[in-house]
Amino acid sequence: MWQNALTIDRWAGKPCFGCDQEFFPEGHVRSNFLCNLGYGDFANAFAIVGLMVGTLGVTGLVIGCMLMVRETRLAVRYLTEEAKLALR
Fold first, then answer.
1. Per-residue pLDDT tens for 9-19?
2. What is the pTM of this model?
3. Where in the chain does DSSP place strands (E)?
4. Which neighbouring-strand residues pair with 7?
5. Is 83 helix (H, G, I), strand (E, B) or coil?
6. ∠ CA 11-31-19, rounded to 5°
7. Computed over its alpha carbons, how large is the radius of gyration of the chain?
8. pLDDT digit string (tens) for 50-78?
9. How many other β-carbons are positioned within 10 Å of the β-carbon of residue 20?
10. What backbone phi and psi angles, to 5 degrees, belong to 65?
11. In whole angstroms, how far apart are CA 72 and each of 51, 78, 85?
12. Which tens digits make up the pLDDT trace of 17-36?
């Protein structure tokens, strides 16, 4: 079922000079947007989604660890200040 699905790939922003020469040899027409229609492989799409989700998870863990280290440093600093005040 998935093998027969139609996909669209966007080529906007990529050089179209070869396509212009191939399809519009007169030179009075220039392409701005190319759209590739064909039968796609959804395994690649699932792999890309999995990679994006994994990257998001790792980013969340890194940010969480950075926040935890920062909060721990603040806690140690304030505990040190309280201990100094208590000894006076």
1. 555 555 666 77
2. 0.48
3. 6-10, 35-39
4. 38
5. helix
6. 75
7. 28
8. 899 999 999 999 999 999 999 999 999 99
9. 14
10. -65, -40
11. 31, 10, 20
12. 677 777 778 877 777 666 66
